[in-house]
Design a protein that fits this description.
The chain has about 60 residues and is α+β, with helices and mostly antiparallel strands. Helix content is about 25%, strand content about 15%.
Length: about 60
């Protein structure tokens, strides 16, 4: 598969889904823009700022 875009971050192995969106936020909303504004906030606080206003963002991770 080919994916075209800008890699805003390259992470290592074992990126847990709780790193992407913290489980406590699932109780607040199921709104995609809400999740986008909180993506990786505890794991990588700079992430949302790097992605703001762009539509071609790609996150690269290792195994698992």
């Amino acid at each position: 598969m080919r994916i075209k875009g800008t890699a805003v971050r390259k992470y290592g192995d074992n990126i847990n889904t709780d790193y992407i969106i913290s489980a406590d936020l699932l109780q607040e909303s199921w709104d995609a823009p809400f999740f986008a504004s909180h993506a990786f906030e505890k794991y990588d606080p700079e992430f949302v700022g790097l992605c703001s206003g762009r539509k071609d963002n790609v996150v690269v991770g290792g195994e698992n």
